[in-house]
Amino acid sequence: MDADAIVAGLYTEEARHDPNPWYAKLHELGPASALDPEARVYTTVANGFDAVDEVLRDPRFIKVLGPVDKLDHPVLATLSRSMMFSLEPDHGRMRRLFNKIFTPRRVAALESDLLAAIDGLLDRMAELGAGGAEVDFIAEFGYQFPTKVIGLLLELPESDLAWFRERAQRIDRYLDLGGKSAEKLRAADDAVLELTDYYLRLIADRRADPGTDLVSDLVALIDSGDDRLSDTELVANLVVLLNASFVTTMNLLGNGLLPLLARPDLVDRVRADADFASRCVEEILRYDSPVQLLSRVAADDTELAGVPVPKDGAIMVLLGAANRDPRKHTDPDTFDPDRADVGHLSFGGGGYFCLGAALSRLEGRLAFPRLLQRFPDLAIARDPVRSDGLLLRGYGVIPVTTGGRGAA
Ligand code: HEM
Q: Could you identify the atom of ligand 1 that is nearest to the CA of residue 350?
């Protein structure tokens, strides 16, 4: 099978369920392959660990957002103003500002609030699971926890969080591979307009009456002089912050639960050993990456792993494949938190490396032990259902039983 046929396979239902057999076939062809540009938008696919790492770090390859002719659409116009989709020097200007406020210290300071949020959700799971009833781990925990965390960071009212999640999902549905229908675009546009209104009000409120939240600190720094960011740019970055943090972290939690519960020896260790829980989080990220692919464009005629890439050629950057590269990882398809070669690219690399990596690592490190301590008999009740995304890979439903111990 040639690279075009394999990449076409990635768009199928079967690959949405499990893209790894397609990734393995790409690895057999080499770390990168040329694609027929007539067949789809990409001229090149990068799948090998080193090739993907190179695309992400090397300034020969630049960020893209989407069709430039659609930039008058609110969703694309807004995203293109955020750091995630900006080029230098704008990217660096925005990223530096966020780095100053979204510090490791701020993340670490959230720990006790995160534990309280986790315990609240586990109480609810215990209630719902009383008497052996099935509980959907995604709906009751994976879906709730990351938005609670954004709620804590921005100090949003609890009652607004469901509203936020729904809008984040509409934007994600449009961004996914194959999601570019007029209907999804309209839904994403509306979501962005509504989020923009909300954030503009929030910024005005925090400017008038500052608190200790992220937005108050960002506004104070911006208004103090050196770090210029317009309110429109700030809104764009807040929209991206919500989107970048919600489904990704939900997928980390869901994608991790399955391989852990399949191995009672690992469950015992996660419960007892915080360092081991951290190793598990890294292996979950490698084994079943919440973000499976990114895109970049060649700034000039160049080559990647010996494959010519034309100027403006779009590269499909397969993080999920890089994380299972047999040239990098021994037995890549085995879930093994003790592996020495746990290195993964799930948070990207280079200048756009995930701003929230430390936060999501902390979320995973706290959530898994707490969940497994609370419900020692937690078990999968029925086959889980994958969500239909490939860009963002995770589960839509994971039915569990919480067991007698840990009940409300
Ligand atoms: C397991 C959870 C997460 C995963 C797997 C993940 C993955 C990623 C990846 C792959 C990128 C690079 C995008 C690119 O190069 O094109 C990225 C960037 C980013 N992430 Fe995350 N992310 C996660 C959680 C979060 C959280 C919790 C936040 C915020 C609180 C966040 C905020 C961001 C932002 C703002 C960027 C853009 C950084 C920049 O442009 O400089 N992410 N993330």
A: 15
- The candidate with the shortest Cα–Cα distance to 394, out of 346, 334, 342, is 346
The answer to whether residue 215 is domain-embedded is: yes
CATH number of the structural domain spanning residue 43: 1.10.630.10
Q: How many domains does the structure of the chain reveal?
A: 1
Rounded CA separation 326/147 (Å): 36
Evaluate whether residue 272 is within a structural domain: yes
Per the domain annotation, does 408 fall within a domain? no
Residue 238 clears pLDDT 90, i.e. is over it: yes
355 lines ligand 1 (CB under 6 A): yes
Confidence of residue 70 (pLDDT cuts 50, 70, 90): low
Give φ, ψ of 295 to 5 degrees: -130, 145
Q: Does the CB atom of residue 360 touch ligand 1 within 6 A?
A: yes
- The closest of 279, 266, 272, 264 to 364, measured between CA atoms, is 279
Contact 65, 79 (CB under 8 A): yes
- Does a structural domain hold residue 81? yes
Q: What pLDDT digit, counting tens, does each position of 292-329 carry?
A: 999 999 999 999 999 999 999 999 999 999 999 999 99
Using CA positions, which residue lies closest to atom 43 of ligand 1? 354
φ/ψ of residue 379, rounded to 5: -145, 150
Looking at ligand 1, which residue's alpha carbon is closest to its atom 27?
Answer: 245
Domain extent, residue 95, equals: 3-401
